[in-house]
Amino acid sequence: MGFYANHILPIVVERGMKNDVIRKYRPQIPPLATGRVLEIGFGTGMNLPYYSSDIDHLFGLEPSGKLLTKAEELISEANFPVDVIQSGAEDIPLETNSIDTIVTTWTLCSIGQIEEALQEMRRILKPGGRLLFLEHGKAPDEKIARLQRRMTPVFKRLAGCSLDRPISPLIAEAGFRFLERDEKYFDGPKFLSYHYSGQATPL
Description:
The protein is α/β, with parallel strands linked by helices and 203 residues long. It has helices spanning 2-16, 20-25, 65-70, 72-77, 114-124, 142-159, 167-173, 190-193; strands at 35-40, 55-61, 82-85, 99-105, 125-136, 176-185, 194-202. A 7-stranded mixed sheet has the order 3-2-1-4-5-7-6. The chain starts with a helix and ends with a strand.
């Protein structure tokens, strides 16, 4: 499992993040970020081309060194400072109240201790800061949700992904208030395509 997690899983994740649906919706979230920004699940830097000039500094949090190595070219082309942090989201090595915007796209499904990670995000956000999110998760239809529960153990082993996380309730329970929120099916198989998107701020 160590070899798979360190060498095979990053390739699976990278290829999965290049599908047509993700390419269609990815540009919606990064342009909304401003100030000092932390991107959770930075990966190979696929969001970098979509950030605006309103960013002062971007921190890219990513546990996989293999993915970060592939991000170097895009980082060199950014028109704002980018620092990568090789770490998980459960213990973010940034100061309390130090970040204006957190961006997370198709990442919350893969974090082991999601509740702890969301608490960390709340800790480092400044008062009035924003969490911008675009995530897939638990569907509202019970038939689809049952299928997601059955398939999650397989997807966790093969792609590091939990299909059945209720993203909006998890964000709210971590102490956030929604500024904007949308939930709907995107294109594709329903067990994969129910998405949560929006903005939230710490209470």
